[in-house]
Design a protein that fits this description.
Two copies of one chain form a homodimer. Chain A is α/β, with parallel strands linked by helices and 359 residues long.
C-alpha cells in the first residue's frame, strides 16, 4: 500500500496574536518546547513516512519558512494554493497531486498546528487507520473528549466496523458542529462521541468520488486543474480557477454527507492549541497555577499565562489572577483568560485600522 | 536679599519601577510632557533664580545625568553626597555651601521629583516666602489638601504671622506624620491643615541654628566638613564623615521640634508623582478613563494606565479594568491600581534575587 501524508499548513492562528502574524503563522511558532508546530508535525510522522511521501498544502507566502523548517522534504512536495479556500479545496488540490503519483494511494490528512503528546500511539493509529481506509472507508481520527467543550465538532460512534492493532473503527453516525453547552455535556457523558480532530485517512480515489458526488462544481474546477498537472499551464490555470472556488470546509462539504465514514476514537493527548488558554492547558503550571515561558517575577500572581519566549524583557506581575500576558518584540497583549476568544477581534480591529505592521 | 534654591535630587523613585532605576532615577524621567522631572524643576524657578543661584544636592552617580539636563548650571553647584542619609543631612550639606557663599542667604529647599501645575503662583509664593523667611521664620509650603490622603504629612495652621503679596503665613502649630484615614478626614474637613510639601524657605543661619539645637551630633559632623570647604581635604573628609551620619528626615529631625515655623498654604496643583496611580491622576484620561502614553489599542478597557513612552511596542488590552501596565525596554509591569504601593516590594524582591540589571 502506498501511504502518503498531506499536511495542511495554510492557517495563521489569529487567536495566538501577537505571537502569530501573517508572516509568522502558528505552524512556524515554538509554542511547546523548542520545535515549531510544523517541525513537531514532521517529527511525529518521520518514522512512518519517507520525506518524499510527505506533502504540504500551504500558501505561497509560507513556503519559504516551511521549507527552512523541514529541508528534508522535496520542494516539489509543497503544494501552493494561490489563496486559501477552506479545507475542502486544500485537500482536493493535495489529492490531485497524490493521484498523479499513485492512483491507489491512501492519504492521511494531517495538521501542522495541533499538538499531540502521545506520539507513539498516534503513529500506531495512523498505520491502523490506513488499513481500515484501504477497504474504502473514509476514516476520521476521533479524540476522546477531555471536557464538554463547545469549541469542537463531535462525531457519534455507531456499530464497530473493524479492529486493527487494538484500535476499533466505528461507523460515524453523525457529525455535530460546535454544540451548545448542554448538548456537549450529554454527548460527553454518553461515551458515544469523539471530538472531530480534522485528521482523516482515506483512499485518494474515494475522496475524489465524494468530491464528485457532493461538491460537483468544485470537482469540475479540480478536473480543469488536473488536466494541466505537470505542464506549464498548471500554475496559470490554478491561479485562474482557484479564486472562483467556493470556500468550503471538508466537514460541511464532504464528511457530514459522505458514505461510509469511520471514526477511530483515540486518546493521544491531542490539543488544537487554537488560543492562549488552550496553550495554557498544554504547558505545565507552577505551584501558583502560573504558566510561564520566559523571565517572570510575580508577587501574589495566580493562574496566569506569561508568554515571553524571546526573553528580552522581564515580566513583573503584582496581584494578578487568571490573566494572559503575551510579550513580543513589537506588541504586548494583556487579556483575562476568560476573554481570550476576543483576541480575534483585536486582530480585526488592527486590520480595520490598517495597522499592518502588527498583522 | 540673597536668595538661593537648593534642589534635592537624590532619590530614585522606587515606586515608579520599571521606569525608574538606580541609573535612571525619577528626576531623569519624562513622566509629564516632554521634559524630565528635573528639567521641570529648573524651568519652574528659572525666572526667579540665576543659574549660579541654583544648587543641587545629589549622589555622584546622578551628577552626569543631571548636568546634561541642565547644562546652564555651574558644575560646582552640584553638591555631591557620598551616600544618601535622608533629607536632613542633604539639606545640611547644601546649607554649608550656601553659607560659604553668603552668610545672610535665604534658601529655598525644593524638590526635583514633584510636579506643579500652577507654576506662576508657585513662583509668587516662593518670592513671598523669602520675605517671610527674612524675619527668621522657618517657612514651609503647605499644600491645600485635595483629598484626605493618608500618604502625606499634615501641618496645622495657627495664628496668622504675616501677609505678603496675597499669601498668608500662619504659625505651624503641629506636624502630623501620615495619619489614619479617620484622622485625615477630620483634618481635611477642619480646613486648618495643609499637606507637608517638603519644600522649605528659610535663612541659612536659622536652619544651622536648628541643626545645632536639635541634631547636635550631626551639627558637629557638619562643622568638621565645613572646616575643609574649598580645600583639598573636603572630599576625603566628607567621604569619611558621611557614612557615620545618622539617617534622618528634615521633618523628624528639625521641623517637628523647631522654633518659629510658618506655613504658607497654597493651591498650586502640586503632586508628588510618587507612584503610578499618582501619575494617573496627573495625566489626562480619555473617555474610557484610560490614561495612555504610547501606542495602545484597547477593547473594553477602562480606568487603566498604559505607560509605554518609548513607543517601541503596541500595548493591546482586552477586557481590562483599573490596571497599571508599564512597558520599558527590558521590563514590563502589570499590576492593579489598588496594589501599586507593592511596586516597592517588587523592587525589593528583585534586589534580594540580585537581578541587578533590573534595579
Amino acid at each position: 500500500m502506498a501511504f502518503y501524508a498531506l499536511i495542511m499548513a495554510g492557517g495563521v492562528g489569529t487567536r495566538l496574536w501577537p505571537l502569530s502574524r501573517r508572516d509568522r503563522p502558528k505552524q512556524a511558532l515554538k509554542l511547546v518546547g523548542d520545535r515549531t508546530m510544523f517541525e513537531h508535525a514532521i517529527d511525529r510522522i518521520a518514522p512512518i513516512f519517507q520525506p518524499e511521501e510527505i506533502f504540504v498544502v500551504t500558501g505561497a507566502e509560507h513556503v519559504g519558512s516551511l521549507a527552512a523548517q523541514a529541508p528534508e522534504l522535496p520542494l516539489e512536495n509543497y503544494i501552493v494554493e494561490p489563496e486559501g479556500r477552506g479545507t475542502a479545496p486544500a485537500i482536493g488540490l493535495g489529492a490531485l497531486h497524490l493521484l498523479r503519483n499513485d492512483p491507489d494511494a491512501v492519504m492521511a490528512v494531517l495538521t501542522a498546528d495541533h499538538f499531540i503528546t502521545d506520539v507513539p500511539q498516534f503513529r500506531q493509529v495512523l498505520t491502523a487507520a490506513a488499513e481500515v481506509a484501504e477497504d474504502g472507508h473514509l476514516v476520521t481520527l476521533g479524540i476522546k473528549p477531555s471536557s464538554p467543550s463547545t469549541g469542537y465538532g463531535y462525531i457519534k460512534q455507531g456499530e464497530s466496523l473493524a479492529e486493527v492493532d487494538g484500535f476499533t473503527a466505528f461507523r460515524a453516525e453523525r457529525f455535530t458542529e460546535k454544540p451548545s453547552a448542554e448538548t456537549a455535556v450529554h454527548m460527553v457523558e454518553s461515551g458515544e462521541y469523539s471530538w472531530n480532530s480534522g485528521m482523516f485517512i482515506w483512499r485518494v480515489d474515494r475522496i475524489m468520488e465524494e468530491f464528485e458526488r457532493q461538491m460537483d462544481e468544485f470537482y469540475t474546477q479540480l478536473a480543469e486543474v488536473q488536466a494541466t498537472l505537470g505542464t506549464p499551464g498548471y500554475k496559470p490555470t490554478l491561479d485562474r480557477v482557484w479564486p472562483q472556488v467556493t470556500k468550503q470546509t471538508i466537514d460541511y462539504g464532504v464528511m457530514e454527507g459522505a458514505a461510509d465514514v469511520a471514526v477511530i476514537p483515540v486518546d493521544i493527548g491531542w490539543s488544537d492549541v487554537g488560543s492562549w488558554a488552550s496553550l495554557l492547558e498544554l504547558l505545565p503550571a507552577d505551584e501558583d497555577g502560573n504558566t510561564v515561558v520566559g523571565p517572570h517575577v510575580g508577587i501574589d500572581t495566580h493562574g496566569t499565562l506569561v508568554f515571553n519566549r524571546d526573553g528580552k524583557r522581564l515580566v513583573a506581575t503584582i496581584g494578578v489572577q487568571d490573566l494572559i500576558i503575551v510579550d513580543t518584540e513589537d506588541a504586548l497583549l494583556v487579556c483575562p483568560k476568560e476573554r481570550e476568544q476576543e483576541v480575534r477581534e483585536m486582530v480585526q480591529l488592527l486590520r480595520s485600522e490598517e495597522r499592518n505592521g502588527y498583522l
